[in-house]
Write a structure and sequence with these properties.
single chain; alpha+beta; Thiol Ester Dehydrase, Chain A; five-stranded antiparallel sheet; two-stranded parallel ribbon; globular; binds coenzyme A
């Protein structure tokens, strides 16, 4: 796709910390199944929103979710638990960004915290007409940010290879 020139978009590189985001949700009965356990779909929705926060802040534009990688739910979450979601830009490419979201459940009565899930999402920046827009590079500063930055390039290669494989399979013979 051609990338239109948008003078209002600033492409100066930005550190990861500038767009790092945190979201908190208390699990209510409407978020749960009849056994009072959080629905996986509800958590996926929150992961998407938490990821979009960092993507919006980094790109300073509208974004759409292009993909969500594999998701595991490691521990059950109950009604009344507090869910904490942290998101950050692992790497920005041309118009897309890989965002990492890590989720914990906090039981404030027992003062305990457990890792619930981690996800990698790809968001694409778009304008109000739905045209893709370039995004600024991200500057990883800490050792962990640098590791995520390197890993994100490898994951992108895997995603691209997988997409090409699917497109080849879907092509009419
Ligand atoms: C995602 C979307 C914007 C891609 O646009 P496109 O013009 O088809 O894609 P292009 O081939 O030009 O790729 C644009 C970028 O998206 C990335 N991309 C496209 N599909 C992707 C996918 N399935 N997973 C990860 N990245 C993807 C490309 O790698 C590229 O990144 P880059 O510019 O940083 O190199 C488009 O498919 C779309 O609008 N999808 C619907 C999104 C939506 O509505 N999401 C909400 C959930 S329904």
């Amino acid at each position: 796709m051609n990338i239109p020139h948008h003078p209002e978009v600033t492409l100066a590189p930005r550190p990861v910390r500038e767009s790092q985001s945190e979201m908190a949700e208390i699990v209510l009965p409407n978020d749960a199944n009849p056994l009072n356990a959080l629905l996986g779909g509800r958590l996926m929705h929150w992961i998407d929103l938490a990821g979009a926060l960092a993507a919006h802040r980094h790109s300073r534009n509208y974004v759409v979710t292009a993909s969500i990688d594999h998701l595991d739910f490691l521990v059950p979450v109950r009604v009344g638990d507090l869910i904490i979601l942290r998101s950050s830009v692992n790497r920005a490419f041309r118009t897309s960004m890989e965002i990492g979201v890590k989720v914990w459940v906090e039981n404030y009565i027992a003062a305990s915290r457990q890792h619930v899930s981690s996800a990698y999402l790809t968001f694409v920046a778009i304008d109000r007409h739905g045209r893709n827009l370039p995004v600024p590079p991200v500057i990883p500063e800490s050792d962990e940010e640098k590791r995520r930055y390197e890993d994100a390039a490898r994951r992108r290669e895997i995603r691209q290879a997988e997409r090409s494989r699917r497109e080849t399979q879907a092509a009419p013979r």
